[in-house]
Amino acid sequence: MANTCAICGATINVLQSQKLMDGNYICTKGCRAKGLKYYDYVHSDLDNVKDHIHQTEVGTKIWQDLMEPLKKTRDKNQKMQSFHPIYIAPSLGLVAVIEARGGLFNTKTYACVYRLENLQIYKTENMPARTSGSDKDKKCVHLGFVHTKGLNDVYIPFDDETRCHQCVDYLNKFFGLDDSFRSGIKKSVTQFKATKSMWDLAKAKKNGENLEEKAKATVDAFGATIIGDRTQFKDAADQALANYDLD
Ligand SMILES: [Zn+2]
Hints:
Blueprint lengths: L2 E2 L6 E2 L4 E3 L5 E3 L18 H22 L13 E3 L2 E4 L4 E8 L6 E8 L3 E8 L12 E7 L7 E6 L2 H14 L5 H27 L4 H17 L3 H10 L7
Antiparallel strand pairs: 1-2, 3-4, 5-6, 6-7, 7-8, 9-10, 10-11
Helix pairs in contact: 3-4
């Protein structure tokens, strides 16, 4: 029995079909290949898959234009940190997950690019239970991004577990969470701000003021307490992504 690809309309047989959670099929050669292998098609619906394909299209362009050139930079301030296939570019406020395909002389690199400010989960884990094949028993770095469509919960398997820990350690250090003294000070300052804005919120309510803005400030202050202040990464990413339709 033949299926029809819900994206490009191609007629496909069972072997050429990827079934999605919502019952749709997409073609493996044309459409599924536009996304990364890290994407979990089986548990996704068509809208999400389309988001992921768009994300990969734009991400690949950003990787080529902005990030890959940084591999060779000698400028310390521009330096990109590599835990292949994860690349972290602080100067751009971006992180990329890449996948290289093809042979030695015709490699094409696909990428999903994320804002560092949206990185909420980063930890060493076992690969999820759904994993099959040679990655099944590997350790992985699990990256979770908020405010991100498409592939936003990413499991990157590593052959060498120490590499996972190095990546997570780097990110902890990067977000200022390794230095207990510094983060202690930072935390108490932020907590003070958070407490103060809670108090403002209560006061605003009493005075019948518009609560929306006050509430946002409160949430922001609490968010900063948990994940650190990421304003600088947001500014860098805003600038880097100005000409790209990523968000
Ligand atoms: Zn297709």
